[in-house]
């Protein structure tokens, strides 16, 4: 089944969208901005030398830092251009082009994952009809006790309560909700959500 993901619509309307996106992150790094908050968060919650899935990995900016921290990282993204950037910048990662909703993780050897991370507003770009299928597919990669962590902003078309319900619908247990990757507590009026769930 082919889903109507917002990211694909953006690429269709602007063929330079992916290249511009990749360049924006390069410029932030060159300007000295800290783009490692998500990776530090995941590194803190993962065992050493963990198996980590970067779901919607883009250019590998999160996964690449986790590789440098000593983890084995598998990245999946539907944008082949961004995957080519990840392969160039972080060649020791295992990067795959595919739709998170129906990607065959088992065939790619992406199993027994300690932590699956979905950062950078990836979830807000999903076709709403694919959300629960995507979350269930990501869950399938996790070992028992493995954890899923995702973060995205408010006002992007995916209500936080709906997202939490979708995560619970997969059978995962929601452990914690925060309002930032810097561990600020989540409040009803928070404009960002970081959610941690566990495969039980």
Automatic annotation (TrEMBL):
Residue ranges constituting the Methyltransferase domain according to the UniProt record: 52-146
Keyword terms: Methyltransferase, Transferase
InterPro entries, A to Z: Methyltransf_25, SAM-dependent_MTases_sf
Lineage per the UniProt record: Bacteria, Bacillati, Actinomycetota, Actinomycetes, Micrococcales
Key word Methyltransferase present: yes
Coiled coil: none
Transferase listed as a keyword: yes
Domain of life of the source: Bacteria
Sample GO molecular function, one term: methyltransferase activity
Protein name, per record: Methyltransferase family protein
BP-aspect Gene Ontology terms: methylation
């Amino acid at each position: 089944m082919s889903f109507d993901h917002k990211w694909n619509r953006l690429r269709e309307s602007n063929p330079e969208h992916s290249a511009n996106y990749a360049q924006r992150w390069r410029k932030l790094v060159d300007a000295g901005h800290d783009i490692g908050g998500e990776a530090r968060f995941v590194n803190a919650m993962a065992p050493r030398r963990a198996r980590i899935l970067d779901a919607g990995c883009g250019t590998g900016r999160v996964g690449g830092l986790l590789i440098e921290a000593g983890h084995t990282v598998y990245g999946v993204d539907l944008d082949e251009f961004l995957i080519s950037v990840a392969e160039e910048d972080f060649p020791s990662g295992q990067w795959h082009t595919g739709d998170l909703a129906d990607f065959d993780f088992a065939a790619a050897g992406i199993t027994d994952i300690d932590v699956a991370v979905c950062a950078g507003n990836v979830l807000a770009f999903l076709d709403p009809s694919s959300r629960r299928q995507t979350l269930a597919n990501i869950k399938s990669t996790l070992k028992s006790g493995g954890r899923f962590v995702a973060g995205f902003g408010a006002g992007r078309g995916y209500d936080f309560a709906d997202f939490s319900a979708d995560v619970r619908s997969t059978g995962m247990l929601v452990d914690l909700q925060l309002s930032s990757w810097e561990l600020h507590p989540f409040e009803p009026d928070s404009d960002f959500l970081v959610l941690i769930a566990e495969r039980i």
